[in-house]
Design goal:
heterodimer, A: 7-stranded mixed β-sheet, B: 5-stranded antiparallel β-sheet, globular
Chain lengths: 115, 112
Amino acid sequence: GAGVSQSPRYKVAKRGQDVALRCDPISGHVSLFWYQQALGQGPEFLTYFQNEAQLDKSGLPSDRFFAERPEGSVSTLKIQRTQQEDSAVYLCASSSETGGRQPQHFGDGTRLSIL
Amino acid sequence: LAKTTQPISMDSYEGQEVNITCSHNNIATNDYITWYQQFPSQGPRFIIQGYKTKVTNEVASLFIPADRKSSTLSLPRVSLSDTAVYYCLVVLEGNYGQNFVFGPGTRLSVLP
């Protein structure tokens, strides 16, 4: 497809389980972003890749969160030992240039629910 | 702490012009201001982007003053389908580098 694709759309996990969320960006886009959106709030930045390099991971809330983009295309956000406060929508976006000079194009997110 | 502010909610009637302002005191020198629209259960959708002065496209206008410490999204002649949450996204200069920061969002309700 032409847009950013995220999978799964919904994920339910028990507290303590590990989860992996996938993002397929728009083909050829250099930059890839992950955001966390809690219910009723704006998206909050987690991490940013330029090609395969993770340039900024300052928004990752703890060392249980890990993101990778090994070939500069598909990205995976992994959360280990999930906690209830990890429940949120995780949004992925890609952009054709670095930084904020071109619009970010978003997927519809993965809604994660931790029981 | 770098942050942005927006009105929490706005009401309007069909056919009216709506202006939503985002304040961003510490914006990065060379980066753009972007506005998004979000419907429930969907990702944010790009509306318009600008650096300074005025930008217009087929759906909206964006006004940015010279100091770039705020920006105003203008939606002409809104319709019921414009009911959504609107976010500004800016790159702010933080203590440890640049930060991609969304505003808290403005919930626009368009009434018939």
